Amino acid sequence: MSYSPWARTRKTLYALGLFLIVLGISIPSILILMHEPPTCFDGKQNQGETAVDMGGPCERLDPRYLEPLHVRWVRPLKLRDGFYNAVAYIQNTNVNAGAKDLGYRMRFYDEQGVLVATRVGKTDVYPSMIFPVFEGAIDSGKRELTRATFEFVGQPYWKRVDKAPMTNIKISGQRLNLTRHSVRLTAKAKNTSIDDKYDIHFIATLFDKKGTAIAVSHTYLAYLPADKEEEITFTWPKSIPGEAHSVDIIPLIPLEN
Asked: Which domains does the chain have, with CATH numbers?
């Protein structure tokens, strides 16, 4: 039996339509099977990673593509006879790159260069900013501390961090009250975000007219609700050396694990 040209055309179109339907059903399934989700813990360098389980789609970043941390300065600052506070200013120039619980060591020396005290601790590294590391109530054994050093212990575990968690904490209304026997600094801290903030540490550094740090202190808020403002206070038990010309108050909130 022969088929007319129209019949053959219909059969061809039918077969083509059936093929396209099957292909349309199959392609998404094939693509799903072919798509490999990020495997950033498989111990292999794949999927655009720049090192094993680093870079590319992974949260962990490759340190070879990041700038090292820079210690801008560190100073011991007298609190009262025999006791000092200390602060180091650290700069991270890397955008969207942070690290949690990076170990550090501070060493403190007297005027003869003798090592008097050592402090070790951990700090978070915040993306694209200069941030302080504070140590308080350092016992100098009645000796005068004139110099300090700061070094990191180990290497940062760099992770992708979009922004520092304290970005929306705004400081205003700084007021410094000096007497012969004490110094009191007050300011307002406002949470301008839509999220409540927790575990907020504030480091206040006073500078003279030459820009040299002359005093540092620390205070803390456990909780600051969204769109709310709280007063924060810093105190020193005696008058500070020199005249305070400017104030730097920096809030710090721990990075998420």
From this structure: 66-163 (2.60.40.3230), 165-257 (2.60.40.3230)
